[in-house]
Amino acid sequence: MRTIKKLSTLLLAAAVLLSCNQKSNTVTSQKEYSKYLEIKDNKSRDFVQSEIDFWQKKFDAAPNQISYLSLLASNYSKLFENTGKVKYLYKAEELLLKSNEAYNYSVVGTIRSLGRNYISQHRFKEALVLANKALAIGEGMKETQKLLFDINMELGSYSQAEQNLKAINDSSDFDYLIRISKWNDHLGDLKTAISLMEKAKYIAILNENKHLQVWTFSNLGDLNGHAGNIKKSYDYYLKTLELEPNNSYALKGIAWISFSHERNTVEAKRIIENISKRHHTPDFYLLKAQIAEYENNTVAKNEYLTAYFQMLDSIDYGAMYNKYNILVYADDKSTASKALEIAKKEIAHRPTPDSYDLLAWSYYNLGDSKKALEIAKKYVVGKSFEPKLNYHLATIYKANNKQAKIVPIKKELLNSMYELGPNLEQKISNL
After folding, report:
1. How far apart are CA 87 and CA 85, in angstroms?
2. What distance in Å separates the CA atoms of residue 375 and residue 281, rounded to the nearest whole number?
3. Over the chain, what is the mean pLDDT?
4. DSSP symbol at 279
5. How many helices (H) does the chain have, and how many strands (E)?
6. Over the stretch 292-302, which tens digit does the pLDDT of each residue have?
7. In terms of CB atoms within 10 Å, which of 95, 103, 270, 352 comes out highest?
8. Count of CB atoms within 10 A of residue 5's CB?
9. Which domain holds residue 216?
10. What sign has the CA pseudo-torsion 203, 132, 157, 226?
């Protein structure tokens, strides 16, 4: 009788301990963010649409006023950001092309706007041509150098990016601060990256610029998550939503916290289901597939991946989802050759360590570990601090029996489990 009572006491203590551990792991609160999931209207989108209607009427009445085209394009770009519908990005491009053609590519602001549109479309080399065209004209040099920094970072031209960063050096300038923050993140110095983004945040607050506050809050949500400051990350996503209740990026960030940190797949799925109704983009299917994989639901995972590719087939996203396609195809031996084909194309227009990693990963999944190692050593090792790249690198090292090189990488990977997600936990432990 005493033995049974003792066992019951132990079981109760274990249950209490488990409950405490689950609570200590919880940073989100449904009471705080659920109201943002239930919003029916979208004031930001409606305002942008009203601006489009206004400027379209103005242009229809005075088609010789070319400046109206840029104003229309700017609002279509905002509509793309708000809804995720790529047709609005293409509409902005169409308007900017008309505007640049009318000006004979002589107005630097309009040239830069088209360059930024091409960045969003992942047409980086075309964006570079436009930025250099603006640079040659010579007006607004600082703004053009900011654009060049952004493009060079995307192209992996880091020495040129650094030169442009030095050219715009001004610690009181918001645009400089967010770029030097990105530069430090690229160097693997997250602490400095966060500190610089905090300075940019204060400038945005001081200037009462809601758009820039939303931008910095959401980015601080990301950066703090990468640094393992999960509660801070969550708080910044909430701050983003307070200013912009329909911000799908912040809600997706909270969904990731629910999934990766709290391991609450039910709540993560609830958040994703709600936001994907308002901001319907292919990447939500990939997130759902990740969660299904964690739940060992292979049928659901395959259904979500099928839905993802069906959406890509029905809507032309250009090169915007190449990276995701490579990762999905590479993880399946039957489609790994497709991954290799896309990876080669990606290198042709974006020769970054990230792209070369995808090429190496494709070769590894095709069974050519030696070729994978050769590419990784030449183009990836020491050139990026991204956890996913390091996971691929460690896996390739293991396939080539280079265990000594795995040890320091594995330590870093274990510290990056939140960013990598729970599906890689066992794989990393087995390295």
Report:
1. 6
2. 32
3. 93
4. S
5. 25, 0
6. 999 999 999 99
7. 95
8. 9
9. 171-245
10. positive
In a domain, 177, yes or no: yes
Six token digits for residue 424: 């890689």
pLDDT tens-place string over residues 74-109 = 999 999 999 999 999 999 999 999 999 999 999 999
Q: Directed axis angle between helix 174-186 and helix 141-155, to 10°?
A: 20
Six-digit token string for 257: 């916290």
Axis-axis angle for helices 336-349, 353-365 (nearest 10): 160
Query: What pTM, to 2 d.p., does this model score?
Result: 0.91
Tell whether 226 is covered by a domain.
yes
CATH number, domain of 212, equals 1.25.40.10
| Domain assignment of residue 51, yes or no | no
Beta carbons of 407 and 375 less than 8 angstroms apart: no
Six-digit token pair at 4?
A: 């049974």
Percent helix / strand / coil, the chain, rounded to 5:
80, 0, 20
Q: In the numeric block, which tokens belong to residue 382?
A: 């020491």
- Count how many domains the chain has: 1
Q: What is the 3-state secondary structure (H, E, C) of 41-91?
A: CCHHHHHHHHHHHHHHHHHHHCCCCCHHHHHHHHHHHHHHHHHCCHHHHHH
On whether residue 327 sits in a domain, the answer given is: no
